[in-house]
Design a protein that fits this description.
Layout: E1 3-4, E2 22-23, E3 35-36, H1 45-60, H2 66-70, E4 84-85, H3 92-104, E5 110-117, E6 132-139, E7 147-148, H4 149-159, E8 180-181, E9 195-198, E10 202-209, E11 215-220, E12 226-230, E13 246-249, E14 252-255, E15 258-259, E16 265-266, E17 269-272, H5 284-287, E18 302-304, E19 307-309, H6 311-319, H7 328-355, H8 376-381, H9 384-409, H10 422-436, E20 439-442, E21 448-451, H11 453-458, H12 471-474, H13 489-497, H14 499-503, H15 517-522, H16 541-555
Antiparallel strand pairs: 1-5, 2-4, 3-7, 5-6, 8-13, 9-10, 9-13, 10-11, 11-12, 14-17, 15-16, 18-19, 20-21
Length: about 575
């Protein structure tokens, strides 16, 4: 039976060697003694609001690792920290930040410490088809003196994985309760600090919901870097047994404790606020609207104000202030800004890898059993999942622009555009935003290479996720730009063999991918082969808009020329 508490082996896409803390505690005479004393009996509404503000501040900060964020002015508690460095991967980050906030506010904290696949023995709990069962829980001890906080945070990092999020949203057990619950889909509930769980092995935190309904998220990665983007279709909607997509931390309270002379709560037990007592508990993301049985989630429909929608449009409508309106030029600018953030985060990840010299190592004879979820060097320094999400963001941007043009053609009321040349205005906005985004990398010869979003579009399926390849390959270089890459024939062959994997934007975590270079080259190729696909989807927004503008200019007759006038 697959039963894990402490992280061992290949436990999670975003756990492993990244999951550690570097401890260097300051003496007790410093601004904080580093002790966690629980003085508050329960998480109140005021605490939850402060938690939201805390996460919103970190999300908006100009920081690119968890450690930077917690040491930045965005963290109001930074001056009370003992000297330590904070590390967490994607699964740990929500728990670590929640625990950190609880520590600083004297709040109780508890967590699922061991999970078992509901599928049965031999199942990888990261990707169990029927979710996981909770078989053990732990909590911060309640003592008068308090307990050292940083080792507890370290302990949480060792135990938490994405498997903790993969459990049935309908569970309402008073003892083996879930750390999180499924919230209602509206602005009052989907707030900063809400977890967005991608069943393909990733977890993020919501840090802002824009007035137009876009949900901004940030997440950590195995190399300790942070990325910020908006929630899109890469977050797959599934049944309640897997816990996707939205989860909120469940409020808890201490029952039966005694208050010591210093105000600390001693003893007692941790009790959850049950689903029925949570104002915003809802299975809406599984049942649809109007609701169906949550386990018949595939049959769910999404109707808002009498209009049928897909789930992601429905979510956007529910999150919007007032009626859902698309402001196409502003939407394009926002999507390009988000993509630029993604590219900057990717730059940071690639720099971490090259700074450690991974590109100078010899690659193994085979790929990992699954390139998206593994361990060791590949988990820490490869970027297949990050790159797949980046490609999905480019595809979503392309699809949205095509939809905006179609909506404009039928004068759809949801499209808020008062101009006369949408394609031309979008193209102008694209060019302007493209000029504002610059991604620099230092090539193998030490020279700086500058790329724009447009450059990335044209090489999107050439960006290598393989950490053993030179930095020029990591950024999809060709021609003269590639000349400074000094890798040999073997790595070049690997790069070419991985082309079909780079074309695939859908992450297949349940497919064997441990191929040799010969096996990759032979094929066959297809979404479920583990070798990739022959061609990636269209993503070139600029080419699409330029084509429209060109056709429109040809179609408009010159009334001063009688030959051209019908």
């Amino acid at each position: 039976m697959r039963f894990w508490g402490r992280k061992t082996g290949i436990l999670s896409l975003c756990v492993g060697f990244a999951a550690f803390w570097s401890l260097a505690l300051a003496p007790a005479a410093s601004a904080s003694d580093g002790l966690w004393r629980i003085t508050e009996q329960r998480w109140s509404d005021a605490h939850e609001k402060s938690w939201e503000d805390f996460i919103a501040g970190l999300g908006a900060a100009d920081c690119w690792t968890l450690d930077q964020c917690l040491k930045s002015p965005a963290n109001p508690y930074r001056h009370t920290d003992p000297r330590t460095r904070f590390y967490a991967d994607c699964a740990d980050m929500p728990y670590v930040l929640r625990a950190y906030f609880a520590w600083k506010n004297g709040l109780p904290f508890a967590w699922q410490s061991a999970m078992r696949a509901h599928d049965g023995p031999g199942t990888d709990i990261r990707y169990s088809l029927e979710g996981n069962d909770i078989v053990a829980r732990d909590s911060v001890p309640r003592t008068a003196r308090g307990v050292a906080a940083v080792p507890i945070l370290h302990n949480i990092v060792n135990f938490v994985s994405t498997a903790m999020f993969r459990r049935d949203a309908t569970i309402d057990h008073p003892v083996m309760f879930t750390d999180t619950y499924a919230p209602r889909l509206d602005r009052a509930s989907i707030r900063p600090g809400t977890i967005a769980y991608d069943v393909n092995g990733h977890a993020s935190l919501v840090w802002r919901v824009e007035s137009g309904g876009r949900i901004l998220i940030f997440s950590s990665h195995p190399d300790h870097s942070l990325s910020r983007t908006f929630l899109g279709r890469e977050f797959l909607r599934t049944g309640p047994q897997l816990g996707s997509i939205f989860q909120k931390f469940r409020p808890i309270e201490v029952v039966g404790a005694i208050r010591a002379a210093n105000g600390a709560l001693v003893g007692g037990r941790i009790a959850p606020i049950m689903n029925a007592d949570l104002e915003d508990f809802s299975l809406e993301q599984y049942t649809g609207n109007p609701p169906v049985n949550p386990y018949a989630w595939g049959m769910a429909q999404w109707v808002w104000n009498g209009e049928s929608m897909d789930f992601y449009t429905y979510l956007r409508a529910r999150m919007s202030i007032g009626e859902l309106e698309y402001h196409p030029v502003a939407e394009l600018r926002g999507m390009m800004q988000s993509v630029c953030f993604d590219l900057r985060a990717r730059k940071h990840a690639v720099e971490i890898s090259t700074a450690r010299g991974i590109q100078n190592m010899s690659p193994p004879a085979r790929l990992p059993n699954n390139i998206y979820g593994t361990h060791g060097v590949w988990e820490l320094y490869s970027t297949p999942s990050r790159d797949a999400r980046l490609k999905t963001a480019f595809k979503e941007m392309y699809d949205h622009i095509v939809d905006f043009i179609k909506l404009d053609m039928v004068d759809a009321p949801r499209l808020h555009y008062e101009g006369t040349d949408l394609a031309g205005d979008l193209l102008t906005a694209y060019r302007e935003q493209n000029e504002l985004c610059r991604i620099d990398y230092r090539n193998s010869a030490g020279r700086t290479v500058t790329l724009t979003i447009d450059d990335i579009v044209h090489r999107l399926y050439d960006l290598s996720f393989d950490p053993y390849q030179c930095i020029e390959r990591r950024w999809g270089a060709s021609g003269d730009e590639l000349a400074s890459c000094n890798e040999g024939a073997d790595k070049t062959r690997w790069y070419e063999a991985q082309r079909y994997l780079r074309n695939q934007i859908d992450r297949t975590y349940d497919v064997d991918m441990g191929y040799s270079i010969d096996e990759l080259e032979r094929g066959p190729w297809g979404p479920r082969t583990g070798r990739g696909v022959v061609e990636g989807p269209e993503v070139d927004v600029r080419a699409y808009l330029e084509g429209l503008v060109r056709r429109q200019s040809v179609a408009v007759p010159d009334i001063a020329n009688p030959v051209a006038t019908p």
